[in-house]
Structure formats: C-alpha cells, structure tokens
Amino acid sequence: MRQLTFFKRDEPVIETKLHEDVLEIIIANAPVNALGAAVRSALAQAIDAAQEDDQVKVILLRGAGKLFSAGADITEFDQPPTGCALPAIIDTIEASSKPIVAAIHGTALGGGLELALGCHYRLATPSAKMGLPEVSLGILPGAGGTQRLPRLVGLDAALAMIVSGSPVDASSALAMGLVDRLVDEEDFPAAAIAYARILDAPRRTRDKQVAHDAGAFERFAAANARRIETLDAPKACIAAVKASVELPFDEGLALERKLFAELVTGAQAKALRHTFFAERAAGKIADLPADTPRRPIAKVGVIGAGTMGSGISMNFLSAGIGVTIVEMTSDALDRGVGLMRTNYEASARKGRLTNEQVEQAMNLLTPTLDFDGLGDCDLIIEAVYENMEVKKEIFARLDAIAKPGAILASNTSYLSIDEIASATNRPADVLGLHFFSPDNIMKLVEVVRGEATAEDVLATGMQLARSIGKVPVVARVCYGFIGNRMLIPRQDNAYAMLLEGATPEQIDRVHTDFGMPMGPLQMIDLAGVDIGWHRDTNRIESLQDALCAAGRWGQKTKAGFYDYDEKRKPTPSPAVAEIIAEFRDRAGIEARTISDEEIVARTLYTMVNEGAKLLEEGIAQRASDIDVVWLYGYGWPRHKGGPMFWADEIGLTTVVQGLERYADRLGGDFAITPRLAQQSVDDGSPGK
After folding, report:
1. pTM
2. 114 catalytic, yes or no?
3. What is the chain's mean pLDDT, rounded?
C-alpha cells in the first residue's frame, strides 16, 4: 500500500493510500474536515496526480475521524478568496476519467455534501446524515448543490433540503437517490474500497435531467410563504433550483454562483455569520481555564412541578438523566407529571418521538413529596415562584440534606443568586440556571455566576446545559440578569406610550414588522399580565393594576391587552381601549399621535442602551453574548444578528440621536450610558 500525506504547516490535511488499484483520498483536517484553502489545494493535487497514475483505476474519497466533512471554512467568507475554489475542484472531480466514489460517514454538510455530489457514486453508513444548511447562514449552496441535488433526488426533495437547510438521514438519502448504497459501520471503509473496485466508468450528475412537474414551485412557495417572505437566502435558493429546470447545467451553475456572491456580502448573511460565531463564543469564559474540572452529574433533583419545573425536568429526562421531582401536595405533583406525559405524547403523535422513547423518559422520573428524596442528587434545581424569602428557606433546607459536592441551582428570573446562596453554608456550590419558557423547547439558559460560585461549578453548569441541547450564556448577578433586565425599559416605555396615545396593536405591529415573533404587549399577555401584581383590586396605581382588577390577566383568562378566542387568536379589545382612556384621563395625560419611529427609539434603542450598561458593569462578558440571549431566549430575528449587532449595523450614532430625540419622554432618571455615547462618537456613522 502506497501512502502520501499533504500538510498544512505541521498538520496533515490530506492523506492518500493506494490499495492496489483503488486510491483512497482521506480529508484529515480536524476537527470537522472543513474545506479550507489548504485542504482544497491538497485535494486538487491528489486528484490531478491520480489522473496521471496508470496504477489507479478508481478513487475513493472519505473523511478522517468521525465525519466526512462539515463543509466550507466559514472564517474565509469575510476574506479575499485564495487558492483553488471549491466549485472548480468539484468540476474537476466530476470531469475525472476515472470513477470517484464518496464514502460518507458521520455527516456531510454544505460544501462537504456538494463535494460528494460531484463524485460519480456515493456510499453512506446507516448513521450518516447529509444536508445543505447554507440557508441558515444567509447564503445558498455555492458549489453546484442547487444544480446537482435536483438532478439526483428530484425537485420536491431538493427544494425541501435546500430551502429548509435540514439534513436527511442515510435511509432517506438512499430512498431518494442521494446515495447509491449503505455500508455497515463495522465494514467501513473496507467495504467502500471493495465496492469502488467493481466500478468501471464515471457517472456524471450534470448529465441527468431534473425530475419535476409544472406546479412544483408554486406549491412550494405557497406552503413556505411565511418562512421565506422576509429572508433573502430562501428566495435565492428557489431561484437557483429553478435554474436547474430551466437552464443548461453550466448556465445554472453561473446563476448559482452569481446569487451566492450577492448573498455572501449582504446584510442578512453578515448577521447570520455573526450569530454562528456568537453562539460559539458564548461558551467561552474569559477567566475560566479550559481544563477546569467538571463535577459528575448522574442524577438531578427539581423542586416544583409547575410549568417551569416540569419543563426543566423534561430536558434532563430526554437526555437520559434521571430526575427526582418534589412537590408539596399530591395534586400539584400529579399535575406536573401529567403535564410531562402529555407533552411527550404530543411529540410522539407528531412523529418526533417513538412511544418507546416516551416510556424511557418517563421511567427515569421519580416523583415524590419527600424533600429528603433529593439527598442523593448531584444537581438540585429550585423552580418555585419568584419570592426571595421562599427561595432562601428552600436553600437553607437543601444545605441540610444535599450531599457534599452537590450543585444547588435556582431557576430565578430576576432575584440575586448571592442572596439566595447566603442561606447556605456552601455558597461556592450555588449558581443560577435560568431556563426560558417553554423550558423543554427554548434553547437559552442563563448560567448566573454568583460572587462565590466555584469555577468547577460554573464549568459544570455550562457543560451540562450544552449536554441537554441548550445554548448557555454566563451572566453576573443583577436584577433580571441579561435578558429580563433589558426587557424592563422596553416594557416601561410600551406602557407609557399606551397612555400617551399609541394602541397595543401599533406597538406590537412595529415589533412584528421588525421580525419579532410577537410584540411586547402580546408577550405580556402570554406570560401573564398579573405577574408581579399586588392583587388588591381596590388599589389602582398603574395600567397593569387597572387591567388586572378587571380580570384581564392575559391569554390564560382569554383577556389581556387583547381579547382571545378558543384558539388564543388575539383581536383588538374595545374594553382595553376604554380602560386606557380612563386611566389616561385620571393621570391628566393628553393623547397624541405617536410615530413608529418613536416606538422603535423608546423600545429598541433603550434596550441597546441597557445592553451597553450590562457591558459597563461586567454583567455580560461580551456584546455578542447579549445577542445570543436575545436570539435564543426572546426570538430576536436571526437575520438581524441580535440587538447589539443590529445597533452596530444601523450605526451607534443613529441610536444615540434617537434616544436624545425622545429623552424628555424616557423618564427623569434615564441617561445614555457613557459606553454607548463614546462608541457613537468613534463610530462616526451619519445617523438617520
């Protein structure tokens, strides 16, 4: 067996092994075999050399380690192109006079799958996954994916894969014609080499015709209208796939590359690349060594079986971690357990879980009324209502029964972890794990680092959140931490503008037009207008008091800022308009016309200002962490990159000037943070 190795600096990126007449080319660019410039150059050299080698009859291409290739090196997107371009290499592969086989294990994503599409044959292990997720980065497959995939799998399947960006498993890939054969994991890659040896001629995807019917594009556009209406990349993906039907192959490729070039420099792609890197940066803690030990977590305790406690428990059960859940009464415990089963069974009905998986998860649950049952847990999460005295009482009890080394966590949304920890004799073991509702779905967890939180406790909290599929962000202690603290000026100004003349519909429309899933008043209705209400119907000191006294507590009572039908569909409420008018008259406020621009300044720009304060105070590590919180916890539109990135893009001078314009309406204690004011000077953007 003849073996060669191609190097980048001191690390191999391509290995070749000649097995008699089969040349095996192995991409060895750890950790994900990204197709960076060095890999592309080495691939080109290896393929060219194989064409001239009479001993080589067929070429097998695969990845080293755990996967085929995760695709392009995203860090190169913002740099001038260097070396051999991926589309050119794929064209070379397809034009090869010797058969080239892609042997896929693990994952083949993006440019990795496009590389495989250029090969003449494709094999995969049963556990492999394949996809073209470029749309999630605001771009389209730019190395022939939009032209070759439809020719292999047909129009409907190609549109679904390319526009959604979702991967398919190996069995689906085999059924649709994306791969030719499945190879057992244990026999891979020997079985792939054996298969390659029987091939005697190339089979080029470019020569195929696209299987389709005339109405495919219209049906797809209608079914996905909501997904694609505000996003550039899905529209471009559809246009490129359409070219695979209407244009010759080379012209379709040219259009694909033109659309790719337009997208990759666009604002949406830039924002989506930012979100990609921001999520990865959020996992890094500046003063925490990478080799900080983690505490083993084999069993988790949850205190409280309400909506939050049940949702938190499901995260661990779904990850195969046993949970002991404690409640004060049998009725509350039974409701919580029933809610978990109902949620799991709903997922099973939708095909997301099997009935066996539902039972496996539920069998890991131990419901109990015995607080001492938490004594053998490695992590205990308190998930009761927001009352400091109640939480301190619980943590004092935990201090007495939790085993040494157990991590004690609070799911508090606002309250001080330091004060909660003071109720124990082990404050180093205490931290915050702030999950977001619905807990079993929302990906964000704010990992709140108390003044005394031990390094290994913090490291364990971060790792554990990732292990259950969450995106963790570290926050220091302040009221509301990162996300909820930034909500305060938004909500305060929304309430104020209602009294000044805006309607709930106008305020919420400005936010949904911006790209939010719902506006601030719709969000209050969803969470509950009565949260934080003093519950004295005779004490009307705020608009919230007036609404709650009238029984308008939000969606749960089918009446909040909006009226709700049986399906929780909102409609404007004449009763709310009357309550607002009465309260406005009582406060002596004269209604005026409020512009959409003012709503943006007073609800979104004020959030940016609060984010700058969080950075000044060291509550958040970096601006991109704030973006991650809002992307994953509050539905900030991904194609706008998060509030801090968005502010940079529109210009910090624009933000500061907007705040100054309405400063007299932002309250007497409002001030533009020095960090934002100085950066706006440095920014030099013209303002709008």
Report:
1. 0.91
2. yes
3. 94
